[in-house]
UniProtKB/TrEMBL annotation:
InterPro entries associated with the record: Isochorismatase-like_dom (IPR000868), Isochorismatase-like_hydrls (IPR050272), Isochorismatase-like_sf (IPR036380)
Taxonomic lineage of the native organism: Bacteria, Pseudomonadati, Pseudomonadota, Gammaproteobacteria, Pseudomonadales
Keywords on record: Hydrolase
One Gene Ontology molecular-function label: hydrolase activity
Top-level taxon of origin: Bacteria
UniProt key word Hydrolase: yes
SUPFAM superfamilies: Isochorismatase-like hydrolases
Region feature (Disordered): 1-26
Domain Isochorismatase-like: 5-174
Name by which UniProt lists this protein: Cysteine hydrolase
Residue ranges with Polar residues bias: 10-26
Organism for this UniProt entry: Pseudomonas nicosulfuronedens
Length: 184
């Protein structure tokens, strides 16, 4: 069986400088643990980065915010997908890249849980990939809900994971992913 692909979403410099409160301060460390485990095994890795279509965005091409965080940056041999919308499958060739390699399972981590992670996980599940979302290797930011109530990043994160669990993905933590996949 083809090993699962690790999809690391939007670990860019601009995510470090956001002034909004966030959850999971250990997320980058946990992503680093997953990245190191995948590299040790030689398993497929996909680094996904958002490239904005809005001039002035920290994710506009050529801006420092669009660059990968150095400790999570891809090696030359690792696949990079650029996206312009939250869902990494839209207009990116990601599905084709996975299918050509016979990859049936994706493990997703990154930012933000309720945006790019959730959008990508929903599509992965809908496309028939066995999808895992690593809860402690994702994070998000405080957000107002539709009724105008301010929600903490932890509340937003928990609701997003609840939206995914069971229907689109299996939500796990880093230790369980490493244990289940025997790659610790």
């Amino acid at each position: 069986m083809t090993p699962p692909a690790l999809l690391i979403i939007d670990q860019q410099q601009g995510m470090r400088t956001s002034p909004e409160p966030r959850n999971n301060p250990q997320a980058e460390r946990r992503i680093g643990e997953l990245l190191a485990a995948w590299r040790r095994k030689g398993w497929p890795l996909v680094h996904i980065r958002h490239i904005s279509r809005s001039p002035g965005s920290p994710f506009w091409p050529g801006q420092p915010g669009a660059e990968f965080q150095p400790e999570l940056a891809p090696l030359d041999s690792e696949h990079v997908v650029e996206k312009n919308v939250p869902d990494a499958f839209i207009s990116s060739g990601l599905e084709r890249w996975l299918r050509v390699r016979g990859i049936e399972m994706v493990v997703i981590c990154g930012v933000s849980t309720n945006n790019s992670v959730e959008a990508t996980a929903r599509t992965a599940g809908n496309l028939g990939f066995a999808t895992r979302v690593v809860a402690d290797a994702c994070f998000t930011f405080d957000k107002r809900d539709f009724n105008g109530v301010q929600r903490s990043a932890e509340e937003v994160h928990a609701m997003s994971l609840a939206n995914l669990q069971g229907e689109y993905a299996q939500v796990m933590d880093t230790n369980l992913v490493l244990q289940r996949l025997s790659i610790g």
